[in-house]
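Researcher: Quick one. two chains, 472 residues in total.
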Amino acid sequence: MIETGSWMDLIFLALMTILTNYYLKKAADGTLPNLRTIPAIAAIQEGVGKSIEENKPVHYAMGASGGQLYSTLVSMTLTSFAFLKYLSSLCARLGARLIVHMPYQTESLPMIEEMVREGYRVEGKEEEFRVEDLRYYGRGALTWTQGVTASYAQEGVGLNLSIGIFYSDCPISLEMAKIMGGLNVGGTGRWIMVYAFAMMCDYVFLGEEIYAAAAIVSQNPTMLAGIWVEELGKFFSIAMSIIGVILALVGLNIAPILGI
Amino acid sequence: MSTLKKEVPKLIVMVFGILMILGSYTTIPIFDTLNAELTSWTMTISAVSVWLGAVYATYANYQLYMRNRKEGIEHLIYFVVPFLVFGLQFGAGILYGVESSQYLWYFAHIYTNIGAAVYAVMFFTLASSAYRTFIASSWDAFALLAGGLIYTLRQIPLFQAFIPGIVGAGEWIMLVPNVGGGRGAVIAAALGALALGIRTLMGKEATVTEGA
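Model:
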């Protein structure tokens, strides 16, 4: 009845679900985790200020493929939505112009528009929201890259916040923003592309930091409570790795026992 | 937000999410069938929503042109050319078929070449960012510079000949610290994604339920 080799995954999923439920209840009682400061979050506000001083727009890019709603990377899409709403709200409050470079997955466009609109609405400035600053460049990473870099060159860039699902589109867009004088802040959960962010960004969210940072910027108790679950999962993984190594050293392979 | 607008999407996400999980973890055929069916729905949704992209792109360029008619002439081009290309492609497809050289001419001679040219720019962007990254301004940056240098130089025959141990050192950097660090990062990112996924399935993910 259960797929062969998936017992361990299923048990882990069940454990994580129980823990999530427990910590959500804890968050509802007002107990929230203490979180360290992530410098890249403060840099977003600094970048918006820089954009206003230089009279240049703030750019938000979630990747050419950053609108995936039904792939295994959907969590990154949702995380980038949280940042988008935070940034639009910040731009509306401080009076900066926000240009959003939308991904080519058209099914996510209404959600993106709503996130930006909501950010302006929260600040009571919905009339300042401009639909024409939501840019769509058609299908493909290379058309997206051309559109984004052209926008940097023509309209200028004060802050470039890039968070989401990135492939080979980010080395070009990030470095172009840097060359055009923009402050680059960003990150992706795709480990294979983190190198580009580490090299090209002034402030970077390293891999999983995007999830924690999204919770921090949203200041939503349920999202903040989720960080506990992530941390416990990490400790569990570390413990499993250490136990696995020790057992392997004494000649006991537990992988078949666990159904891995 | 009204209860209907908030609760119905939450319910849809929960029901379909659980069905997808059951399809992945169980061997019950009905869930496999449902899994395949739901996956095909995503393709339909994606295809149907394509027109939205055209609306956004057209509207943005039209508005930007109308705001500044003198200097925004390129937006007029961005506004007109896609329709022109679409018309020509559509006409070629109707007249000669989608396998014809007339229909494929645009892809073969324009789209692919522009794409390759843009992709080539990546070399220059990587080179300029590597220059900034490899400035040894701290011990961390020095470690990065040393690792990068050893890994890069090991590929050059001249250095392989004069520094015999460089190949082994480069391979070690690639296979031990790089793979170890990478796996740690992947596990951490997967846990973050899993925690968010569980919150979504429980209808507690704020990005989905309240717009963050």
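The mean pLDDT of chain B is 87.
Researcher: Thanks, that's what I needed.
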